[in-house]
Amino acid sequence: MDVNSEMNKGNAVNVRKMIEQKKSSRNLNNLIEKVMPKLLFVIASISILTTVGILYTLLSETFEFFQRVPIVDFFTGTVLRPLSQDPQFGVLPLLTGTIISSVIAMFVAIPIGLMTAIFLSEYASDKVRRTLKPMLEILAGIPTIVYGFFAFTFVTPILRDIIPGLQATNILSPGIVMGIMIIPMVASLSEDAMSSVPRAMREGALALGATRLEVTGKVVIPAAISGIIASFVLGISRAIGETMIVTIASGSTKNFTFDITQSMQTMTAYIVEVTGGDAPAGSTIYYSLYAVAMTLFVFTFLMNLLARYISRRFREEY
Amino acid sequence: ACGGGSNEPAETDNTGSEDTTEDNAAEAAEDLDGSVVVDGSGTVYPLMSVLAEEYMINEQPNVSVEVSRSGTSAGFGKFLVPNGTDFNDASREIKDEELEEAEANGIEVQEFKVALDGLTFVIHPENDWAKELTEEELISIFSADGGVTKWSDIRPEFPDEEIKPMGPNENHGTYEFFYENILDKGDLVDGVNLQQEYSTLVNLVAEDKNAIAFFGFGYYVNNQDQIQAVNVDFGEGPVEPSLDTIAEDGDYAPFTRPVFTYLNVDMAKEKPQVLDFARYVVNNVNEFAGETGFAPLPESEIEEYNSFLDGLN
Amino acid sequence: MNIDTTTQTNTTSKYIDQNTVQKRMNKRLIKNNLAKGLFFVSTMFGLVVLAILIFRVFSQGIGWINVDFLTGRLSNNPDRAGIMGAILGTLWLMAVVAPVTMLLGVGTAIYLEAYAKKGKIHSFIQANISNLAGVPSIVFGILGMTIFVRALDLGGVVLAGGLTMSLLVLPIVVVASQEAIRAVPNHLSEASYGMGATKWQTIKNVILPAALPGILTGAILSLSRAIGETAPLIVIGIPALLIPFPGGLMDRFTILPVQIYYWTIDASLVAEYANLAAATIIVLLIVLFILNSTAIIIRNKFQQRY
Amino acid sequence: MGMLTAEKKVNVEIKSNSSVETVPAEKKVVYDTKNLNLWYGKDHALKNINLEVYEKEVTAIIGPSGCGKSTYIKTLNRMVQLVPIVKISGDIEYRGQNILDKSFKVEDLRTRVGMVFQKPNPFPKSIYDNVAYGPRIHGIKNKKVLDEIVERSLRGAAIWDEVKDRLSENAYGLSGGQQQRLCIARCLAIEPDVILMDEPTSALDPKSTLKVEELIQELKKEYSIVIVTHNMQQAARISDRTAFFLNGEVVEYDKTDTIFSNPSDKRTEDYITGRFG
Amino acid sequence: MGMLTAEKKVNVEIKSNSSVETVPAEKKVVYDTKNLNLWYGKDHALKNINLEVYEKEVTAIIGPSGCGKSTYIKTLNRMVQLVPIVKISGDIEYRGQNILDKSFKVEDLRTRVGMVFQKPNPFPKSIYDNVAYGPRIHGIKNKKVLDEIVERSLRGAAIWDEVKDRLSENAYGLSGGQQQRLCIARCLAIEPDVILMDEPTSALDPKSTLKVEELIQELKKEYSIVIVTHNMQQAARISDRTAFFLNGEVVEYDKTDTIFSNPSDKRTEDYITGRFG
Ligand SMILES: Nc1ncnc2c1ncn2[C@@H]1O[C@H](COP(=O)(O)OP(=O)(O)OP(=O)(O)O)[C@@H](O)[C@H]1O
Ligand SMILES: Nc1ncnc2c1ncn2[C@@H]1O[C@H](COP(=O)(O)OP(=O)(O)OP(=O)(O)O)[C@@H](O)[C@H]1O
Ligand SMILES: [Mg+2]
Ligand SMILES: [Mg+2]
Ligand SMILES: O=P([O-])([O-])[O-]
User: Fold this and answer.
1) What percent of chain B has pLDDT over 90?
2) What is the membrane topology listed in the Swiss-Prot or TrEMBL record (chains D, E) (predicted)?
3) pLDDT tens sequence across C233-258
4) Looking at the domain assignment, is residue D56 inside a domain?
5) How would you label C232-268 residue by residue, b for 16+ Cβ within 10 Å and e otherwise?
């Protein structure tokens, strides 16, 4: 334990001195220290630039579009015939397509996702949950193009056997498959919300002789409702923005209809069709792309805001 | 025949140029690279993509030929702009407006016919009543003035079921050919199902007993197991569309149309690989026309094109 | 199951009649069990669909996978067609996405966690990032087409596609890196400051190394998202037939999902294309599986316990 | 600070607590625990417990942290089995029936046996709905009957006057002590036979503690009560019998007076006099 | 348990601790704190502190939890300013320079003043890299020089023999006590003038505590040491001077002997005799 006797006396290495000597390199450090925050700020601004870029491109071209097609015609028109000699740009067929496909998707995703969440959070043992949850997450990681392939080559033929009037391209099949794709999202977000309900609350109900089902229905779900609803809204937002499944499996008919056995086009599929056809810059149809994209953007943006508002506003305090 | 091009091919040294062409090609075969960009007609796409592939395999492995299929009209949109595509396939002739646009942009365009196509009407394989229809009956199905919504509106003995007419959408030359040359610019019937992808149409017809659609012969021959063609009676008895009947002056002639590819001449002058590919297309198109569902061109036209291309050297 | 109720001698009148409670109890328990069964079936529904999907894709595609398919060039002829071009295109795309998102994502995360004052700017950027995460991918495609392909005139090349994808997956990397950085305990950076280290030295030498596993996990997950995305690249414009292999950032390219797309919609032209699409899906799924497993391994193996 | 005041009262009350003396000898046994053993995985948490809980008495369970008090009381309504790794052997007879029997329905048991927890755990619902929760799941829908049950239970839990004008407000608006009494009211609403309480006052301030203690004294006229407490003075103040747990065993179980004035085991004495724990 | 054994030693050592007596009176002042006030937002955490720290002495800071000990010691190397809401007034002179001056570079200060924390906080790097960290950030890259510094520092922290064969292993493989000595070695590697220690042994077992205490006694031959401790016996054992903090104020500051044997303030006495805290 004779520490220091040799330490400073006649040292081969005098650290103090060396540190003093190296002080010149401190200038570089100081420079880095000054520059780094600014550099990082610039990098962090890129995410903002991205948003600005999105808004700017969408807005400016949309503006140009509305110079050519009155905004009222766009939002109230039931006929979308962009390529015809006498083009018409009513967005309603796309809106109905988008809404109907999303509604179908949520008809699948909400009940199944919620019930899955309930099973995982309230009924499954730890072990079961730990095996099932990652498997469900695989479902969420499968690329949408694969779901599109699946919808078109597998689900549609099966549905056609069941539903005679169903067209080869229809909105029903991609809607269902989209719902399947969204199940893990709804399930996992709802499960998070339900698991964060304190155990004490469940025990309080169980101690009154409630069954698991009653605990779930009357205590857990009401307490977790904001998170659950937020998961639904995010699911809807996801369905609205989903592209490949509908593009592949619903064809490109711009029907203004509510018949789910028919082919319909969503906003996203329209964008793919028009850009896939690579509309020449400057044509009205080219600008229509941005108007549709803008509508889509606003839709999903509002949905996301709504989800965040709900989960903040209605969070139970316990 | 080479309508539209502002630069008339020099027809004078037709024979003499034959050798030099091949010399050039042989020389060029050594070291060509770069890219050739082809877009346009979906009808022509199967033929053009096979040509492109064969060209890259057998002639110029270092040249990259991309073939897209936006449709004739959309393709022209990308072709007739500065720095646009090198070729645009078309299932109709270039329009006057499009030529004007080319001129305005200072783009010199050369037309090549590449093959002959028969506009084919297809129905479900189990549709046993509409296998033979007259030209007028067909038109009445698709025309807004036809007054036909059910099969029984055509002939009373046909089923009392709604007809589901379909076709390619307005991106496509096929649509425009139909609209301009067959409907004579009359409106299409309400509720006609227009699609971007031909494959979607094939599917729709294959799955619907009451469907009837029209598109290029090639998409029919490749799917004969799923759909059947309507034999059309042009007044002299029903004619089955086939490579023979859609050939020049065949019995299917009223519904036959040439398909084209248009070359940006400046690109061909600038980029040797574009010129070389043009030459390849012209000289080999007949070899692949049959297998992709087109009728071949007369040799005379091919010679004409060759001499034009020689003039660009 | 009859609990002796007479023992209770409460003076107050009773509302809860134990006999009725008993009778209802069975009904309630049956309901509970039925519901449990239903919930279980629901849970299995997703998994069964997953199994069907995978089985179906494999049974259709596995026969088409061989060396020629994996290494061959694209072709119109299904017997000759290969996906090497798409594989290379995917790799080239990654070569752009990986460094760009790492740089931007980690940089943004460092800024937010270490430099930005908790205030308006901070929460603005933060809100912005979570909004970006919810923007449909196709809108990013339009952004890429407008900015990179047209305005910057790059054309539909690897660089344009890669930058578009980078912006698309940026929020994933930012959020993952933020969490990783936040998870580095304060006392580590205190130790570093205590030695006279500057802020950047502390970040570089202590925080980033400790956060690296978490950052890498996020980066890999973002890559696997980028690999599976189709729509933005279709918007950017990828030719239906592209035989040459991409060799650089400025080359035109195709990627696995886009190839799947074209083969799926062209299946009615040439029936075998559907099988090619299935085979390509298998390859894509395997690539994703490997990537995600790597992420999990990194997370489990290198995550420090402090 | 609060604890100190509470402690001062103890000495006074211990003496005044004479209820034990007047209890008739023929009291009925509500719970009869026989050779109960319980493991959390391999952790032997309860060792050969034998214990009788009598009707209309307050039975206190005391002991140092981790000795198994909560585990035992949770076994009495089988809540302990919510922990999946729990293994149990032995018998617990509730009014003559072995509740550890597989065929015994826990929901049945729990409608007879109410439980109050350490931390008040009202549901995030209105005060009314909290109390009506139990009757409702047992099928009582009639609004008038419910109203009456709610009022009676809240009165029984000595909180009626404080909340009667805000029955539709969220229970989380109440103070901790009020919440705990609400939880007791929630318990009373299903008219239980036994009430189990796991440190019901440990999260409360001295004033609320006092209120709850008074309430317990009141409740035992109608209910049998088992209460776990860390606070020996509390056990002395309110219970008729006391069991002292140590390391999962019952060291001593007797009338509260005896335990506190004349314990027979050295360890009990040490614990009571604060020598450890 | 461990604490008990440690306590027993105290009485012996307090008496044997005679170093204070032999300190020459003309000791240099290292830190001179004048009228220091510190706020966390509105929370006044340090109130008008005046304190001198002398060279080559151990200065202990004691006081109940939350009294501002950590805050004060962290002010000495300005680490406290990592908390953004902190506001400071007053002066702290380190060897004649006011370190609270804006123009004073904290990095400079911190290379002169090492710090050891309550919880051992080695970096998740190899043992070698942990010790070499400081020299490296100050620009020393030469492998041979680094080797020498690492060995010397580890020897200085009395841990060399335990780790010399596993220098490239991760520091998290060490025991808590070893980790703490490693952190001290890491400090020594930059040859500081002062070492600040914030409860350096509170996370350690009695044996490791003893080792660290011995080490501190050794270190004060070369370094000035300021140590925060909860453990009064520890302060008595190892320090030359002791400051007693209460509610952000210095109640008393004097030679350790005086503080422990003859405190002038009633509150100090109460605290030391365990009457509160
Ligand atoms: N869920 C559990 N899993 C594993 N072990 C547990 C669990 N709950 C309790 N234990 C263990 O069982 C033993 C008894 O715990 P219990 O909670 O019954 O003690 P207690 O007497 O209530 O203590 P306290 O006074 O702190 O509440 C302890 O050793 C504890 O660690
Ligand atoms: N980061 C902070 N933000 C706000 N207040 C703080 C912060 N750190 C400490 N405080 C407050 O400052 C006061 C002094 O805290 P400090 O940590 O210095 O006490 P301490 O004497 O070290 O206590 P302990 O012995 O528990 O470590 C306390 O009231 C504490 O709540
Ligand atoms: Mg307990
Ligand atoms: Mg402290
Ligand atoms: O695709 P088209 O040939 O019809 O233009």
Assistant:
1) 29
2) Peripheral membrane protein
3) 998 888 888 888 888 898 889 999 99
4) yes
5) bbbbbbbbbbbbbbbeebebbbbbbbbbbbbbbbbbb
Query: pLDDT tens-digit profile of D140-179?
Result: 889 999 999 999 999 888 899 999 999 999 998 898 889 9
The CB density around residue D188, as the number of other CB atoms within 10 Å, is 23
Whether ipTM > 0.85 holds is no
Can you tell me the distance from the alpha carbon of D75 to that of D248, in angstroms, rounded to the nearest whole number? 13
Q: Which atom of ligand 5 is nearest to the CA of B42?
A: 1
Distance from the A43 Cα atom to the nearest Cα atom in chain C, whole angstroms: 6
Residue D205, token pair as written in the block: 């301030």
Q: Is E274 left (phi over 0), alpha (psi -120 to 50) or beta?
A: left
Q: C177, C167, C283, C180: which is closest to C225 by C-alpha? A: C167
Taking the CA of residue E69 as reference, the ligand 2 atom at the shortest distance is: 21
Give the per-residue pLDDT at C5: 42
Q: Is the pLDDT of residue A294 over 80?
A: yes
Q: Identify whether the C-beta of residue B215 lies closer than 8 Å to the C-beta of residue B120.
A: yes
Domain, as residue range, for E244? 29-273
Domain count, chain D: 1
Nearest ligand to residue E66 Cα: 2
Count of all residues that appear for chain A in the document? 318
User: What predicted TM-score, i.e. pTM, was given to this entire model?
Assistant: 0.83
C228:A142 CB<8 A: yes
The architecture that CATH gives domain A80-313 is: Orthogonal Bundle (1.10)
Domain segments of chain A: what residues?
2-68, 80-313
Total length of chain C? 306
What separation in Å is there between the alpha carbon of E66 and the centre of ligand 2? Answer: 5
- Residue C108 one-letter amino acid: T
The C-alpha atoms of residue B271 and residue B128 are separated, in whole angstroms, by 53
Residue E11 in domain: no
Residue at D82: amino acid letter: L
Helices C120-134 & A221-241 angle (0-180, nearest 10): 70
Say how far apart CA A29 and CA B182 lie, in whole Å.
78
CB of E74 closer than 6 angstroms to any ligand 2 atom: no
Name the CATH superfamily for C67-305.
Answer: MetI-like (1.10.3720.10)
Helix intervals (H) in chain E: 2-16, 19-22, 69-76, 106-112, 127-137, 143-156, 160-163, 176-188, 206-219, 232-238, 256-261, 266-272
Q: Tell me, what CATH number does E199's domain have?
A: 3.40.50.300
Q: Is residue D21 part of a domain?
A: no
> Residue E92's beta-bridge partner residues?
E33
For residue B13, report the phi and psi dihedrals to the nearest 5 degrees: -95, 50
Nearest to C39 by CA among A141, D77, A220: A220
Q: How far is C253 from chain A (nearest CA, A)?
A: 15
Is residue C46 helix, strand or coil? helix
Residue linked to tokens 């080219």: A286
CA dist., res. D2 & res. A207, Å (int):
31
- Residue B167: closest CA among chain A residues belongs to which residue? A253
Ligand 3 centroid to residue D65 C-alpha, Å? 7
The sign of the torsion formed by the CA atoms of E137, E143, E144, E150 equals positive
Tokens of B88: 């645009």
In a domain, E127, yes or no: yes
Alpha carbon nearest to ligand 1 atom 10, residue = D40
The Å distance, Cα A201 to ligand 2 centre, comes to 34
Contact (CB, 8 A) for A113 and A190: yes
Which atom of ligand 1 is least distant from the CA of D64? 25
Tell if the CB–CB gap between A198 and D121 is shorter than 8 Å. yes
How is residue E24 written in tokens? 């020459």
Q: Is E45 in the pocket of ligand 2 (CB under 6 A)?
A: yes
Which residues, by Cβ under 5 Å, contact ligand 4, an ion? Answer: E 70
**Whether A244 contacts A144, CB under 8 Å:** yes
